[in-house]
Amino acid sequence: MDRRMFVAGSAGAIATVLAGCSGGGNSGGPKGVVRQYLTAFGNENVDKVNSVLHPDGPASSRGELTESYYNGFDTFETNIESLTVAEEDETRAVVEAEYTITRGSDGDSRTSPYSQNIVLEKHDGNWRIYSFQ
Predict the structure, then answer these.
(1) What is the number of other CB atoms lying within 10 angstroms of the CB of residue 28?
(2) Tens of pLDDT along 7-36?
(3) Contact 109, 60 (CB under 8 A)
(4) Can you give the pTM of this predicted structure?
(5) How far is 14 from 33, CA to CA, in rounded Å?
(6) Which residue from 71, 49, 45 is spatially nearest to 60, judged by alpha carbons?
(7) CATH number where 89 lies
(8) What are the respective helix, strand and coil percentages of the chain, to the nearest 5?
(9) Torsion sign (Cα): 23, 28, 30, 33
(10) Domain enclosing residue 97, as ranges
(11) Number of domains in the chain
C-alpha cells in the first residue's frame, strides 16, 4: 500500500478527548470521533486509529494501520485547523475537516495541508469513520 495514499485517504486525516474514551465511542458526536482519529493518528496511537474505523467501510478495507507505518519518520504530527459537521442524521454524518500533517526524518520535515469530507456511520450505536472523500 502506498503510504501517501493511506495518509491522504485515512488522515487524510484524529484531541483532547483521547483519555478515557472507549474505542469508537460517541464522545463529542461525529466531530469528536474525527478529532479522536486525527489526534490519535498524529500521536502514533494505532489502536485508537483502528478503533474508530467502521468495520464495513472503505476506510477499514485498506487494512489496519500498524506501528511500522511510522518507522520512517522522526517527526509525525497532526494539527487540526477546523472541524465542521456538514450533515447529520440518525445513522450518517459528514464532517468537513481541515488539518495539516507534518512528517519528517533526518532533520528535514514537510507539512502538508488536507481538506476533506469524512463520512461517519453508526456501528453498534457508536459513530465510526466510514470513508474519506
Answers:
(1) 16
(2) 444 443 333 223 333 344 556 899 999 999
(3) no
(4) 0.78
(5) 7
(6) 49
(7) 3.10.450.100
(8) 30, 40, 35
(9) negative
(10) 3-132
(11) 1
